Predict the structure.
Amino acid sequence: MLIQDKLAWDNNLEKNLAFLQTLGVDCVALELPDRPGANPAVDCSTPAAATAFFSKAKATVAAHGMELRTVLATSGFEEVKRGLPGRDEKIAWLQNAVQAMGTVGIPILAYNFKLLNSKLLRSAPTQGRGTSTYISFDYAEYLKKPAPPVTPPVSEAQVRDNLHYFLKAQIPACEKAGVRMALHPDDPPVPLGTPALAGAAHVVSSLDDYQRIFDLVPSPSNGMLFCQGCVTEMKGVDVYDAIRKMGGMNKIVMVHFRNVRGEFPHFQETFVDNGDVDMFRAMQAYRDAGFKGPFSLDHSPMFPGAEVANQAFVIGYLRALIQAVYR
Ligand SMILES: [Mn+2]
């Protein structure tokens, strides 16, 4: 079963690859820059340029005994999400990326349709275990100090249309390339009937939303990034049932393996071992659904004074669970 962690294509690449290899990570998710051209080393201006970049990236990761398995297009691409001028160029850029990923053999493109960075949609951090703090959300507290609204305003119907427009263009390119798209939920997932936070329309906030999105463009390439944290925060959702349901339809392309306490309208992002989710039971549900990975790291509380300790902690915990369950 594959454990995956993410990596930025920057100056610390070699050092970070060596660290991940030492921890026993199997595969790597590469972060694309926010905007085309932002990092000149990542050139997807043509399929040939994209292929040259991704084959080099794949070889660099392979030289450290791991596989480049995922590309993250999770921030930026606002024109696509908001339907602004320039979206077709951005989509063309992503299509070049996907075509190259197919050529080189990188099977997953992870993305989201969040209009605002989740960090803005939070209340103050709360006390965690020991000297740690937990990223937290309390709706009443959030409303006292809300994020600046999305401008220009965009309606939920428009954002749904934008997602549909994107999928209609992108999924056929993915099918051709043998790449699967993994859509991350809204963070936080906002229940039906609750006004959008800061006007950021929420169209990926429930399992029904996912079903609607799968039905818009039916394809094995139209899949889900099962963020276990966000799904647990969905009001009234039983996370084990959700794993069985989504996994049973073969829609889970990758997992964000993390734990939380509570659900909307108040939750905390906890260490893996002290949230509400029984991680052993969750791992059994993934196994029973036939999911083989990658299990990816996601936000986890930091250990003050030990910057990378949380990565080592989560990977060790994850490896132990995999060894206990997948046998
Ligand atoms: Mn996540």
User: Anything to note?
Assistant: The chain has one domain: 3-325. The two ends are 10 Å apart (CA to CA). The CA atoms of residues 27 and 66 lie 5 Å apart. Residues 184, 227, 229-230, 256, 298 surround manganese (II) ion (CB under 6 Å).
